[in-house]
Amino acid sequence: MLPWKRVLRPLAALFLTAAVAVVPAATASADSAPSSGWNDYSCKPSAAHPRPVVLVHGTLGNSVDNWLGLAPYLTSRGYCVYSLDYGQLTGVPFFHGLGPIDKSAEQLSAFVDKVLASTGAAEADLVGHSQGGMMPRYYLRFLGGAGKVNALVGLAPDNHGATLSGLTNLLPYFPGAEDLVKATTPGLADQIPGSAFLTKLNAGGDTVPGVHYTVIATKYDEVATPWRSQYLSGSDVRNVLLQDLCPLDLSEHVAIGLLDRIAFHEVANALDPARATATTCASVFS
């Protein structure tokens, strides 16, 4: 039997995501996000930061709530920052990333084209949380994204699936459960280890040439588990464990994307490696 702690942690993560999703900002659309440069289509990239940054939310997230911490963090540092909604299901507001992931990647492709046309930049950088750190790899590999993207930074990306601390291993013991997930929330089914989507995505290697990859993981992750499965193999990959940077960092799957400034500092380093500074526990004050 699974320990209660392992059962309750993923549920707690979902409840926390839901709580964040119903704060007043949830009524805002991506184009009206309260920011300076966040989804501001008049923003022009500077010489210091010549590429726009596209933020890709996670499962059950959206273009505003997932980025109330990181988007202002990056805009205050001079980046042109944009976020999109993807994977919407009819009749399900706010909680996105539930549609088929290959179709979500098509939405990302169209959004990146929109951002590049608006900013005049030749390439963008992508930063994604959870599914949002994994889904862009489909865009890079199969939809021509590699020629339009300089870097992909994943915060707790489920690159090889999400077992929810082992809960998905129980699906075969409940007849019809996996079929129900596939029928109602295909984006969740696509993230089950061994799914047809993940098999296609990871066949032939994790990366494509010309893109710089960074994975930022936490050992306290209770969703994209085991946490080492988040790591990528291949050329031009940097896999980072938060606790190697700051042993005191207790962030789990949701917090790493919502509010962890140590993780945010490492994101900034990945976006601008020429100006990178050491990430430590003190980075929470940077």
From TrEMBL:
Keyword terms of this UniProt record: Hydrolase, Signal
InterPro entries the UniProt entry points to: AB_hydrolase_fold, Lipase_EstA/Esterase_EstB
Molecular function via GO: hydrolase activity
Protein's UniProt keywords contain rRNA-binding: no
Signal sequence extent: 1-25
Name recorded for this polypeptide: Alpha/beta fold hydrolase
Organism whose genome encodes this protein: Streptomyces musisoli
